[in-house]
Write a structure and sequence with these properties.
With 181 residues, this protein is of the alpha/beta class. The protein has four helices and nine strands, in the order βαβαβββαββββα. The chain has a single domain, classed as 3-Layer(aba) Sandwich (Rossmann fold), CATH 3.40.50.2020. The strands form two sheets. Strands 4-3-2-5-6-7 form a six-stranded mixed sheet, with helices on both faces. Helix 1 packs across helix 2. The longest helix has 18 residues. The structure holds inosinic acid (IMP) and magnesium ion (MG). Magnesium ion binds next to loops.
């Protein structure tokens, strides 16, 4: 597997986004809504780069849009909802990767119904070339090609989330070396 983004490069972009969020929400309260499971590593690091002038609360939402394949199936299933009442609150949705946009599109619809004061989207990776619905991140770490990537929260069939760097993943090569499908 080829390493595309080092631990250090990820930390740099995360800190840059943390500075942007600190500037945009200075003196305010925000709810970071972390999209499980993929965004948990990014969100944990990001939250710690936001300065003390922002009152940060954290909640989680769990959806699944990918089975074990590397292509979006286009159906988003809600598994666990947030516990916080977000009405009138500033919300930042934290995602690992924005691909077709279908997951975030459904999540935005779901959260907008609760009438937050504002709702922004923060993603570590963006694949703008794969977009099916018109959605753009307000905060983005890396804009990337359409490679399938793993590591730092991103999985292939639930594996590799624990890697500290991000790698390009080739499912065909994976099959030929492991015999797994
Ligand atoms: P979307 O709904 O197509 O935008 O896909 C978003 C979700 O698909 C992300 O939250 C990831 O879980 C998954 N995903 C998309 N691209 C990749 C990838 O390159 N590696 C791992 N997961 C991915
Ligand atoms: Mg996933």
């Amino acid at each position: 597997m080829k390493q595309l983004y080092s631990k250090q490069a990820i930390a740099r972009q995360t800190a840059r986004i943390g500075t942007e969020i600190s500037r945009d929400y200075q003196g305010l309260e925000i709810i970071l809504v972390v999209v499980l499971k993929g965004a948990m590593f990014f969100a944990a690091d990001l939250a710690r780069t936001i300065n003390n002038d922002v009152n940060v609360k954290i909640d989680f939402i769990r959806v699944s849009s990918y089975g074990t394949s590397t292509e979006s199936c286009g159906v988003v299933t809600f598994k666990t909802d947030i516990e916080t009442d977000i009405s009138g609150k500033h919300v930042v949705l934290v995602e690992d990767i924005l691909d077709s946009g279908l997951t975030l599109f459904e999540l935005q619809k779901h959260l907008q119904k609760r009438q937050p004061a504002s709702l922004k989207v923060c993603t570590l990776f963006d694949k703008p070339g794969n977009r099916v619905v018109a959605i753009n991140p307000d905060y983005c770490g890396f804009s990337i090609k359409n490679d399938f990537i793993i590591g730092y929260g991103l999985d292939y069939a639930e594996r590799y989330r624990n890697l500290s760097a991000v790698y390009r993943f080739d499912p065909e090569q994976h099959q030929s070396t492991t015999g797994e499908s």
